[in-house]
Amino acid sequence: MSAPLPRLRLRVTRTAELHVRGGHPWVYESSVREQNRPGEAGEFGVIYDHRDRFLAIGLYDPDSPLRLRVLHMGAPVHLTPAWWEARLNEALARRTPLFGVLTASGDTDGYRVVNGESDGFPGLVVDRYADVLVLKLYTAAWFPHLDLVLGLLSHRAPDFRVVLRLSRNIAARAAGLGLSDGQVLRGELTQERVVFRESGLRFEAEVRQGQKTGFFLDQRENRRRVEGLSAGRRVLNAFSFSGGFSLYAARGGAAAVTSLDLSAHALASAERNFSLNPALKAPHTTVQADVFKWLPSAGPNYDLVILDPPSLARREAEREGAIRAYGKLAGDGLRALAPGGILMSASCSAHVSAEEFEEAVMGAMRRSGRRWRKLLSSRHAPDHHASFAEAEYLKAIFLQLD
After folding, report:
1. 348 among known catalytic residues
2. Are 141 and 155 in contact (CB under 8 A)?
3. For 183-196, how does the pLDDT look when each residue is reduced to its tens digit (9 = 90+)?
4. Where is the S-adenosylmethionine-dependent methyltransferase domain (predicted)?
5. Are residues 171 and 300 located together in one domain of the fold?
6. Are residues 385 and 249 in the same domain?
7. Containing H/E element for 139?
8. E-assigned strands of 179-332?
9. Which residue from 328, 243, 305 is spatially nearest to 280, judged by alpha carbons?
10. Options 342, 348, 381, 397, the catalytic residue
């Protein structure tokens, strides 16, 4: 029998040391100065500082530019099952006042249960849709610990089904382990769509193959804000996906709602979501078109325009172009507004800061020559809280014409 390998030890640059001490959860490949041996995906790697003192422990991934994702920083710690359970309990405790976590009570049973790095599970998220938990992995470092994670979830939600979702960059590695995107890890899932509740409204989530984990849960608070602004208004929901904002606007008393999206599949989902909520009486129309081409000629026929595009900057090199695109969208949305109308514009591009995004939108308003005022800005929903800069992707601004 071969001797066990020594613990994987890493030394990093002084700058990386400072970042880790400051709570940053990522150590990049370029920051690793030396290590005592090659490591495997999912190993626990220990960072020692320049004085040879324990600094942090994390999940190692030799195939990722994020070479180590920090689990714990400070005094040495043993990552026992009890330690992992306490970490999950902390994440659940943050959400209990919001949702009565993993219980049947309340009017919302669709929300984020574990938010990756910000909840101490770097590269892993868990979303709930009714009695289904969707576990999404962004690094192969979690594969060796999958049974541990399933055990933690089973202990807290024994009757829930669990679906695995995978980031594209780890799909090939997963296949070699007999894992695949959309795989049901626990229980049975006889239908592709799961119906869940959000603020009393019913929605479907395509948990095995839909966008993200099946629905855009992170916009819940902004949907509620739109509901409060919709009474008597003609609402245009651009980049509507499955109609989340549209349903809230209808319940808020909108005079009419239009869902605009390039995807026929998404618009069909929006129609099904309206069917799930027969109490919604506002007329609902779907338009299949490219928002960037359709919106400039829409005319001032709306009193509330919602612009919630997919990420326009998936990498830093796309940031400047995205900023220009957000400004153009805002200008086109503004021209679709009648006097007194409201523009809600959102960005999920992490490479564009909140300040850059707001300036792009407000710059379009200033160039229009029309009188307007800012109603509010918003960031992440509380179950999607961000604990470090790179996690702060979502921002929105509400503006009203005088």
Report:
1. yes
2. no
3. 999 999 988 899 99
4. 194-344
5. no
6. yes
7. none
8. 184-186, 193-198, 201-206, 234-238, 256-261, 284-288, 302-307
9. 243
10. 348
